[in-house]
Write a structure and sequence with these properties.
The complex is a heterodimer of chains A (318) and B (768).
Chain A: H1 13-16, H2 22-35, H3 40-51, E1 54-57, H4 65-76, H5 81-86, E2 98-101, H6 106-116, E3 122-126, H7 136-149, E4 153-157, H8 160-164, H9 168-182, E5 186-190, H10 199-211, E6 216-218, H11 230-247, E7 252-254, H12 262-275, E8 288-290, H13 293-306
Parallel strand pairs in A: 1-2, 1-8, 2-3, 3-4, 4-5, 5-6, 6-7
Chain B: H1 25-37, E1 41-42, E2 44-46, E3 49-51, E4 58-62, E5 69-74, H2 78-97, H3 100-116, H4 118-129, H5 133-156, H6 158-161, E6 165-167, E7 170-174, H7 181-194, E8 197-202, H8 207-217, E9 226-230, H9 236-240, E10 245-252, H10 254-264, E11 270-275, E12 279-283, H11 289-300, E13 309-314, H12 318-330, H13 348-364, E14 368-371, E15 385-388, H14 395-398, E16 405-411, H15 414-422, E17 426-427, E18 429-433, H16 437-446, E19 451-454, E20 466-467, E21 469-470, E22 476-477, H17 479-484, E23 487-489, E24 529-530, E25 532-534, E26 537-539, E27 546-550, E28 556-561, H18 565-584, H19 587-603, H20 605-614, H21 619-643, E29 646-652, E30 670-673, E31 675-677, E32 687-694, H22 703-712, H23 716-725
Parallel strand pairs in B: 1-5, 7-8, 7-10, 8-9, 10-11, 12-13, 12-18, 13-16, 15-16, 18-19, 19-30, 24-28
Antiparallel strand pairs in B: 2-3, 4-5, 6-23, 14-15, 17-21, 20-22, 25-26, 27-28, 29-32, 31-32
Helix pairs in contact in B: 1-4, 3-5, 3-7, 4-5, 4-8, 5-7, 11-12, 18-22, 19-21, 20-21
Classes of the chains: A alpha/beta (318), B alpha/beta (768).
Chain lengths: 318, 768
Amino acid sequence: MSAHNRGTELDLSWISKIQVNHPAVLRRAEQIQARRTVKKEWQAAWLLKAVTFIDLTTLSGDDTSSNIQRLCYKAKYPIREDLLKALNMYDKGITTAAVCVYPARVCDTVKALKAAGCNIPVASVATGFPAGQTHLKTRLEEIRLAVEDGATEIDVVINRSLVLTGQWEALYDEIRQFRKACGEAHLKTILATGELGSLTNVYKASMIAMMAGSDFIKTSTGKETVNATFPVAIVMLRAIRDFFWKTGNKIGFKPAGGIRSAKDSLAWLSLVKEELGDEWLKPELFRIGASTLLSDIERQIYHHVTGRYAAYHDLPMS
Amino acid sequence: RLTTLRGPRERVVINRASLLLIPFPNCLYLPQAWLDTQDRCLGHYVNGKWLKPEHRNSVPCQDPITGENLASCLQAQAEDVAAAVEAARTAFKSWSAHPGVVRAQHLVRLAKVIQKHQRLLWTLESLVTGRAVREVRDGDVQLAQQLLHYHAIQASTQEEALAGWEPMGVIGLILPPTFSFLEMMWRICPALAVGCTVVALVPPASPTPLLLAQLSGELGPFPGILNVISGPASLVPVLASQPGIQKVAFCGALEEGRALRRTLAGECAELGLALGTESLLLLTDTADVDSAVEGVVDAAWSDRGPGGLRLLIQESVWDEAMRRLQERMGRLRSGRGLDGAVDMGARGAAACDLVQRFVREAQSQGAQVFQAGDVPSEHPFYPPTLVSNLPPASPCARAEVPWPVVVASPFRTAKEALALANGTPRGGSASVWSERLGQALELGYGLQVGTVWINAHGLRDPSVPTGGCKESGCSWHGGPDGLYEYLRPSGTPARLSCLSKNLNYDTFGLAVPSTLPAGPEIGPSPAPPYGLFVGGRFQAPGARSSRPIQDSSGNLHGYVAEGGAKDIRGAVEAAHQAFPGWAGQSPGARAALLWALAAALERRKSTLASRLERQGVELKAAEAEVELSARRLRAWGARAQAQGHTLQVKDLWARGRAGQVGWGGAQTRGCEMSQAWGPAATPGRGLHFNMRFAWDIQTLSWAKPYFFLSFLETESRSVAQAGVQWRDLGSLQAPPPRFMPFSCPRLPTNFLFFLFFFIFSRDGISPC
């Protein structure tokens, strides 16, 4: 992984003037899904590429070591071996980008991945996920414990009340502390955009999160009513580009929640490609948080290879 | 990890995820198969049948990119045009006699047929025009169906909603060489809906209109309502002057429109012009710059807009906007239109040459040219081009910007922006980008263009009229205004040619008149002279000469001023000067003035009627005429009041739907409001209004001549002709919700037009 984003001093002039026009962004979001269609082997290649961006996620109350183990195995072998062989990609080391779990399951995950013999990073959600409505002290402690357990990426949720009431300095300070607590681990900041009220707020929160030192900004927890949507993503990607132009730091982007179909994943790839460019299309700078997406991608690749559509029982579960 | 990936499949972009051209052989199958059904030889589609006369020249229809011959197209001659017009005249009798519901059903069936065959339609269109298939598929074909449905609804309520109006008759439709079939749909839908029939003259080698005509013709009982002939531009006057053609709708280049205006002056056919392709985008410092950049892409680099774009950027955001634009341009992709992943196609050799010439000239005049994007280097492709630093006075800055060029220039203040934006003879469409509602509206209303979008560009909706002003034409498409283009009040007498054919344009209005006194003046008082009434006072004509006019019994009635081109110029200037003050009046004040005028007219009713009587009008009819005039004034006054400032909310923002555009009367611009009003109370969902408003700034009659005259001011001689050609509606109908062009009521008095007024007495029109 690349070096951390050190962040910058808080500069409110970066966000004070910004205006985001909602309808115009919606139109752009609509267009972008239709303007880049890929078919046939190009589609297969894009789908394999998408697999390598997935943060394979399980965030359920009933997670135990057994399903974590299954998930880790799936992360290591995301696509059925014979399909990869047919595509001549068997020995290319295609795995998902990371495995993402609750803090209490980090130990299990690290163990399972070790057993599977791979070094896929373990990501842990933290800071009172998904609502973020716990005391700052316990939220920081949560991060430290997860890092101790072996998580190398921490997905923190921000305190939405700070955004909705416009306390940007306080938000900056909080994320700054998260950053410090993460130590060497990567900091992914979940903006929970479904609860921020407006796209202008999304832009401002993105900018603050990047100034405070986030390595990634992430759309949502997957637990809100509205999760990763294209309009929100466009605004966040534009914020990432503005931050890059201002500081030279490339910040990663992670949409999460509601991305279920292979077709969706292609649209997300083309969105990033269109708004930021090819250099962002690598696991260090782009992730997709998803749990069921992988099976659909696998089905599509199955179809590409065999010409038949797979039943769900044809493919190993995760 | 991925850098280690190697192997034969690496070309499938696993590392770079770059988009490669997609093979598209499947797409070609349908249009080829359709062309095969015609044996690769396209004729004309007349009266529900293919017309392939012998001994006609043929023109190859080529793929604009590969140059491959797709088919040969027969060129029509005058007799083919006559046959098509005859078919349309026959069809008009039954088509217009049917109740609106029947026409509505037919239009809905046509929409269904288009839906069924949309793949053929979009692949054919993209194949022959070179436009990106995505735009045709997701934009044009969908909008074509919406247009048919909208106008079907209008047709079904025609008897009630448009009572007192009747279809004009046969409409001649003339389309330019490079056009989307949508341009045709915008015109044929309202025409067919109200009961007109259409003869479309399309340029050679454009199969899509023929396919549309075939789809419509094969629907059954009304084969002759839509006839399409393809032929060269030399047939335009032939079609326009065919007997039976009641209106010519022209869409194309400015010069051709001028020529057609000249050809048709004094003829019986009305003319609707839509000229030019340039558009304008105004980017203020309060805008969402990224979204505005997308607006520029929509306008110029997405195959949606037909032409180039003038871009005005506020100085304080100039650098930021230019950087974002250039960055965005780098991601544009051009290629063969049938490729599903291109932003821009190619538009053939002619368009490419035009833009090459423009850019070369702009460079030689000192402009900076920036080009970017993933564009094939072969000939018909041209990269997205951004021209800046073009000196304002250079010829290129005045010329129409061709596709796909964007000419950017800075402005400092809103006032300057308006001055720059309005300082062009063109007035097609424009968009204003600002997050401040007040500023956006101020700029929107200040722009002298036909259509204004706010925070969006190029949205079209069937229910919203769009059109142009100044040199961009004077016809409206869509919405109620689009319908009135093809209607006239019931009982309007047939139009007659009213100008002599042997008119000499070189001396028209300029030569010194040669009228002599009309002999001895009998009677108690000398015959009254009628002067010119310009700018609120009587004036002697520039020629200082008068012409005698006679009453119905042949006696000398009086003298009217012998007007000339200079007098017209003076009148136009007076109108220009009066306009801001008049437009600035509140609707109530304008209404009150009109009502006062009506009252004054009624006070002098007996005088006016007796003067009319002297012109040979029956006393009763004369009285009715005066009454009607007063009633007309009152009706317009009421309308000014009612439509003055209304703001209608069309619908709240529905996810994923493009905003709707407002409609206006004669001079209103369809104003697109896509103004976000956030942050809203509900988290995650802003409240978004799409306001559809009819804010008619100048509802009144003389507002239209202002713009109209400014359009033709450089050619004031044609103005006179045009002015003479139009006449009073002469019926008791309620006024349409827009201005009828330039009425010239036969009232033997000259106080009516207090704003400006001129007489053109040369051709025996009764003195106004």
